[in-house]
Amino acid sequence: MSHRLFRFLWVLAALVAPAAQAQDGSSRYWSDTWRGWHFYEDPEPEALPRREATPRSSGSTPKQAATKPPEITEFERLQKEVEQTRAIAIMRPTEANVRRYMELEAKVVARASTFADMAQRVAWATPELDPTLQGRPVNAKALEVFEQQQMAQRSESIGALGRDHVLFFFFRSDCPYCHAFAPTLEAFQVRHGIKVVAISVDGGSMPGFPDARRDNGIATTLKVTQVPAVYLAQPFTGKITPIGFGVLSEAQLLERITLVSSQVAEMPPSISTSQAALR
Description:
This protein is of the alpha/beta class. The chain contains nine helices and five strands; from the N terminus they run H-H-H-H-H-E-H-E-E-H-E-E-H-H.
């Protein structure tokens, strides 16, 4: 074969190869003999199957805003209007701004008054909602009965308390308040059945308490700096609790002793100190 014929065939193969490749990709190797035996080409990437786009889940549907009662909406609007009107009147206190605020405030007061009247009517018709029937009465006659019942109950509890408790009465013979308070304590122990142990800080005497004891150091232990002073003591346990200082009435003594007897706190003196004061 001549050199010219070989060149012709080579050119012809170059022209025919692309067409054959388009018809059958698998026969490209055999139709491309013109490339030689040592050529290499990267394989065409395989076409991946197209994945259908899945619609995004919308998730939980947003909760619908709970509809407010019209009264709540109106109240919030009125509250906001009052605040804004007051702020404007404070920052720019012109006659018109102040009048506008005062008129709006008068409307609010009128609404509140209507509410208070209705609440009072409901309380009158519903005893368990009437505050005047709960706890301490407000009526003078009812208050008198209440205090009498309360005093009787407290007197009964203090009588039971007197079985193992006493009252320490610290006094000075030159103290006018101690002399004024002594008759109250003298009558108190007779009426309510709790013994009063009078303790003289200066060693003097006190009318009504001929068996008053001289202070043996317990006043210093309890840090008694003011007289008259009254303490509730339980000798067998050494528990001593202050009741009060100065002149007290019988009602005050009843109230305070009843209160502290329910929660008797331990004081610094020991059992032996409190027992020594009773000897």
